[in-house]
Design a protein that fits this description.
- With 208 residues, the chain is an all-alpha fold.
- It is built from 9 helices and no strands.
- Helix 3 (36-56) packs antiparallel against helix 5.
- The longest helix has 38 residues, at 170-207.
- It is globular and about 55 Å long.
- The two termini are 37 Å apart.
Length: 208
């Protein structure tokens, strides 16, 4: 997961000098230049959430360094909320051309940003109640949403390789929303597999 997050995180961080007034290293984003604060916070929050969040899923960290896991968890939760809320901020405040954001993508971004904050809050409440399974499930779903840019990048590269053109308009919207759908489907599969494993272990233990 760390490597999967690396490319979009690096691309975002490379844009930071442009947002701080330096010459653009990659093609400039006019919306970001006009109002750089939300996208700067979004890049920082998303990078921390995805890169540090990947480390949080290591079983060895949870088992042998629980204090560090808790400390990083607080950082990841705060970064995830910053990422989601600034994503919502940009969706509502920035003026996107129809080719880059239609009604489908607008609704999806608003809904998923709020959902990501709600899932992180749910995860915090669950772990305070010692419900580890619910905590892990909520954070995995939130992480799947936060990793949307990674899957979107992969889908865009495949699409551009196949059709030799960048998807725009409704096809772009479908591709962007589809990336989140793929991530959530994988998250649900992992959650169900973990639940099945716990259930089978409980059954075996009860028979011993």
């Amino acid at each position: 997961m760390f490597l999967y997050s690396f490319i979009p995180a690096v691309v975002g961080l490379v844009r930071l000098p442009e947002l701080l007034g330096a010459p653009a290293i990659i093609p400039p984003n006019p919306r970001a230049v006009i109002d750089p604060l939300p996208i700067t916070l979004h890049i920082l929050g998303s990078s921390v959430f995805c890169l540090v969040g990947a480390v949080q899923f290591l079983a060895s960290l949870r088992r042998y360094r629980p204090a560090l896991h808790r400390t990083l968890g607080r950082i990841v939760a705060a970064a995830g909320c910053v990422s989601a809320l600034t994503g919502l901020w940009m969706t509502v405040a920035y003026a996107f051309p129809d080719a880059l954001q239609g009604p489908l993508l607008y609704v999806a971004r608003v809904t998923l940003s709020l959902s990501m904050v709600a899932l992180i809050a749910w995860a915090v409440v669950a772990i305070r109640s010692r419900d580890v399974a619910a905590h892990r499930a909520a954070m995995l779903r939130a992480y799947a949403l936060g990793q949307g840019a990674s899957t979107q990048t992969a889908l865009f590269l495949v699409t551009m390789g196949l059709f030799d053109t960048e998807p725009l308009g409704f096809s772009r919207d479908v591709l962007m929303v589809g990336a989140w759908a793929i991530n959530l489907a994988i998250a649900e599969f992992l959650i169900r597999r973990a639940f099945a494993t716990r259930t089978s272990r409980a059954v075996i233990s009860s028979r011993l």
